[in-house]
Amino acid sequence: MSRGKRRGTRLGVGESRAGAVGLGIAAWVIGLLWIFPVAWTLLTSFKTEQDASAQTLHQGLTFARYSEVSHSTQGTLSLATAFTNSVVIVLVSTTIVLLLALPAAYALAIRPVRKWRDVLFFFISTKFLPVVASIFPIYVYAERWNLIGTRTILIILYIAINLPLAIWMTRSFFVEVPRELIEAAEIDGTSLINQLRSVILPIAAPGIAATLSWG
């Protein structure tokens, strides 16, 4: 009887390990399939025009294409300036969205406010407005405040576009945090900041990362 139990236990452990290995292999395959187009595009950018059209690598890798793009933009906006603008705009807008979305999602998921469903609907309803209807007033105010052609107007627009869905997505991940852990932290006298830092954010970290990558 004991031998049968041991054999069953070994089979169960073997099956669980095989399942974990299978899931790991599947995750790697999916990850490689997802990153392959990006890697192929990046590799193609280092090829000459002839190798890129023939999908070969006879002439080796080169930075010539990047040099051509850099020289072609002289007199307007250099490639380095455009890249710097993009990095600054993305980093600043993403940071501000995260700083605003986390407390809002906490208030809607962990500490629900009155009429929180109406608040959520308000956030998502801002995505229903047609772009054509909002472009003209945005342009008028941007011109009045001398924001045309600046990083500031793009940062404001990215925040306004991404914040509603960032709050919605982050809230859905905060809801999955077990209430028992939060209540246990409150019983231990943990402050709100420590609850967020040590309990809520570590559990919701994958969801927050997914929200940031989406944004």
Structural class: mainly alpha
Rg estimate, integer Å: 25 Å
Give start-end ranges of low-pLDDT stretches. none
β-strand number: 0
Biggest sheet details: none
Q: What is the percentage of strand-forming residues?
A: under 5%
Please, what is the average pLDDT? Answer: 78
- Cα distance, first to last residue? 58 Å
Net shape: flat
Q: What series of H and E elements makes up the topology?
A: HHHHHHHHH
Q: What is the helical fraction, as a range of percent?
A: over 70%
Give me the number of helical elements.
9
Q: Quick gist of this model?
A:
The chain is mostly helical. The protein has helices spanning 2-45, 49-54, 64-72, 79-109, 116-125, 131-144, 151-175, 179-187, 192-214.
